[in-house]
Amino acid sequence: MEKPIIYPTMERIIEYNLLALTTIKAKKADEPKVLSASKINEVILSCEGLQGDILDKAVCLLKGIIQRHPFASGNRRTAFIVVKDFLSRNQVQFNIKDSPELAKVLLGIREKLLH
């Protein structure tokens, strides 16, 4: 029997936004503020409803948080942490290093240059 997938909760995603902004300070004006709880919920629901494997669902979470922009600050940083935790909780190895060069990929997702 296949193990059920553990999805992030809205509360956990909001906590990770706070964590991202307090540990990875990018701008002086960064503030942990939810702009749209419904957008966070949409991201979770679209991930849960997506047909595909765990990596497809991780991409859905990453793109959803970055492109729907539910927070005032730190959407890319939050998305990265959420996906890292999502894969870890589901016992999938996360092999992407935290590096400024790879952060450009997240910018491309935000700008919808990468689909």
Give the tags.
115 residues; Four Helix Bundle (Hemerythrin (Met), subunit A); 0% strand; single chain; mainly alpha
Quick structural gist:
By secondary structure, this protein is an all-alpha fold. It has five helices and no strands. The chain starts with 9 loop residues before the first helix and ends in a 5-residue tail after the last helix.
Structure commentary:
The protein is globular, with a radius of gyration of 14 Å. It contains 5 helices and no strands. The chain has a single domain, classed as Four Helix Bundle (Hemerythrin (Met), subunit A). It has 115 residues and is mainly alpha-helical. Helix 1 (10-23) crosses helix 4 and helix 3 packs antiparallel against helix 4. The mean pLDDT is 86.
| Number of helices, where a helix is a run of at least 4 consecutive DSSP H or I residues | 5
Radius of gyration, whole Å: 14 Å
CATH homology-level superfamily: Fic/DOC protein, Fido domain
Strand content: under 5%
Overall helicity: 55-70%
Q: Which stretches of 5+ consecutive residues score pLDDT under 50?
A: none
In the residues, how many domains can be counted? 1
Highest CATH level, the class = Mainly Alpha
